Fold:
Amino acid sequence: MVRRERGELWPQIPAAGPTPDGLERSMEELLYFTELVGLKVYDLRGRRIGRVADAAVVPVLDPARVDRYLVGGGWAWLTIRYDQIRSIGLDGIHLQDERLTPYHDDEYMLRIGRDLLDQQIVDVDGRKVVRVNDVTFEIRQEHGAAVLRVLEVDVGLRSILRRLLQGVLPRPWIRRIQTPIAPNSIRWEHCNIIEPDPLRRLRLNISYKMLEKLHPADLADIVEELGPEERESIIASIDSEVAAEALSEVDPRTQASILEALEAEKAAEIVEEMAPDEAADALAELEEETSEEILEEMDAEPKAEVRELLEFGEHQAGSLMNTEYVALNENATVRDAVEALQGNADLLETLSAVFLIDQDGALKGMIPLGRLFIASPGVPLRELASGPLIRVKATDHRERVYEIFDKYNLLNLPVVDEEGRLCGVITADDIISMLRNQ
Amino acid sequence: MLKRIRRQIAIFFTVIGPGFITAMVDNDAGGIFTYSQAGAKYGYLALWTLAPIAILLVVTQEMNARMGAVTGKGLSDLIREEFGLRVTFLVMTLLVMTNFTNVMANFAGVAGSLELFSVPRWVSVPLAAAAVWLLVVKGTYHSVEKIFLGACAFYICYVISALLIEPDWQQAISSSVQPVLMLDPDYITLLIGMVGTSIAPWMQFYLQASVVEKGISEREYAESRIEVIVGCVTMVVIAFFIVVACAGAIWAHGPRDIEDAAHAAQALRPFGPYAFALFAAGLFNASMFAASILPLSTAYSVCEGLGFEAGVNKSFREAPIFYWLYTLLIVLGAGVILIPGFPLVRMILLSQVLNGVLLPLVLIFMVLLVNKRELMGRWVNSRLQNAIAWLAVVILIGLTLALVGISLRDMLA
Structure:
């Protein structure tokens, strides 16, 4: 099995669990949060001083170690630090240092019972949003103290059963009852907590870096599943380019509500990264005032492109087109075309043709990219142009665009203005998402 | 100004769906039976309850729409996040049970209405179940919503049917604004039943979930609220026409009890084939409609609350519990209708009891949730809203518990 690379954030975590590294842990080395809650705490002489009410991780110190245990009930909670514990097991917690301090709420604590249980988190590995039912800890000996480390977050039936029976049946019984049900857990390193408050996010050392590595379409699905606050916090704090890609995949209504909630400056940054046609669609969904505010913040070049597209009515071909394309003079050669493409590598993701224009910008021909590969560099592009040139006017109706795409099996369709000048390209992927939304 | 109004209307049409559909499904087979019974036995007398019902509906539904729009989360999600897994599990178990009996009642409605057109139930019920299952599994949210909105339009059947019967309109209108109380236990039972069938726990979950699913946000909330109100009012207007139709057709010729809603349609035969056919078609439409929505809404709520994957856009392998629950509700709900001698009436009474246990819980949770500032921000209930909400909750709980008592008495009798 492939061993996953560990990020810097997780230096001390052993690849754990009966999962990726194949290291089977015995049940005695594991403890569930449902078992930890209510566990009796004994002092040095073996006298009971209380029961565990909650436990907290302090991510800035260590992302997985349970740093504090809260003991007691009502308002008078005491705090046990992790290094004050001699042993932890189903029989209780035995201290080796009984100087306990009163509990004060502390912004740096991620309290498992309060902040994690029953909340939604993102399973980065499984690329979905899940709800936390329980948490599995690993019991380890570190520097003479018994330490709990968060191993996995539990979802699924098995953990639901534990929650329901917690406190009703003795702990060992619950362990026995649950065995026939297959566990369903997510390794702690793959869990991404979503925290809308930026200050708290900083204090809890939460970042959305892992989300940036997801495929934009997966990220879009995740964003759609979260509540408005959470989704805005993700879009606002991840890299603008990733945000733009993900946002392009989100449905238009959600798109609008996200852009509206962001600061105009940040929204503009994201909209600039989007393909101009998608940017125009997104802005068209917004109230005029808001979209104007965002446009104002944008750089001159993308702003002009988007504005131009916004002029077209919803049913006109112009509203579908992308204004980023590669056009060359009608006398250019294959070599010129390859050079031009090298400067615009990012366009190759959706474009599959280059265009020929004359001095006035009038469209003269279209050359499928494939033909460039098999032609020698000196050949004039004109000779490679595909048969009869198919195009639409920017003011044509959308329906006509669909018809043409279908009839001629196109991947790219050039759009021209009233004078026949090239002004944009409609690509098949735009048509697919358009038709699907209808 | 004109532009703003036009924009508002445009937004209204984009948010239309959740409130309207929820309110219309409320007039399901059980609801139609209760209103028919009211008309058949007491004529126009009970019509005055409809206005207060509309108000109670609006008060509760508005809170759901608001929570959905502001938090972007379903009611079961919120209950889970704020009250923990055990409470959620209890609520979901009760919800599955009540909704299961509701599904059954609606497949019985399908069977009854089609039997009036001499389609035997062993043909109609399996076909209906298959149609319902496919509709949701193969459809998308938008296509399904369109079909549902089409089904809403079908309720016009009752209006036309009532017009054909030519009831005493003057009396109908005056009774609608004139409260009449009698110390007749059957009458009081009926009044309570009318309120009880009108406000059911599943509606709160369904409405909020579909507001979320539709992506309605704070900024469209004003229009969404109008939609909820329009929906509730329309629902009550339909109920009005059902009561009036039965009052004109049955009560005017001798008050009597009816056994089920199909029986009421039967009694409309003397008024021509259209009045009868429309009433029966309306019953079929309503039953199918509710039979489509209830299993889906149940599966969604349960999976969201307990954290299982849910959604018709996921595959069977990705969301097994969602699909199993959905399929079982339909198969079992339709299946029991085909068992000869199945105690359906008793099961429906049981459903009233379960409803009565669940509704107070749900309503109290709702008012608590809508008052949480960390969830709702500036959208928490105002003091006036709270007074109205708690009053509505207390009235509803009182009436529901009374209905539980009555149902238990009938069940044990």
